[in-house]
């Protein structure tokens, strides 16, 4: 499967109207607060940042996106302690919280969201199955996190991750 067809599958799996509506709410909320957003993405590889910047005028509220796919990138770009990754694994609550906090520390943003997960089809285990994704958000000085498990192939897991990350950010901002 080509990269272009994989990205098209993921984009088609998203509900464009719901995603656009959530992003419009996020945009309005951040603009009203005079705040900017940064993203820190592992398993989505920049899809959340791409969705944000697809919205016209996003440069007024979207500060930057980090794609930190490897453990080294999580440490180098976001300041995630390698010992934290070694102790808990890249797909864990402590790491996603550190990613969300690191996105703020390494940007001029005041709000962030982070995702790290196992999109599949390989890489899962009994403790961390394919479809498991940890989410982190820093909003209004507080860090929030949760885990979700999504069914489907790689494109479906990634699309569901984008949709959930954005929907929860909207909820936290409003």
TrEMBL record:
<dbReference type="InterPro" id="IPR008136">
    <property type="entry name" value="CinA_C"/>
</dbReference>
<dbReference type="Pfam" id="PF02464">
    <property type="entry name" value="CinA"/>
</dbReference>
<protein>
    <submittedName>
        <fullName>Damage-inducible protein CinA</fullName>
    </submittedName>
</protein>
<dbReference type="InterPro" id="IPR036653">
    <property type="entry name" value="CinA-like_C"/>
</dbReference>
<feature type="domain" description="CinA C-terminal">
    <location>
        <begin position="25"/>
        <end position="172"/>
    </location>
</feature>
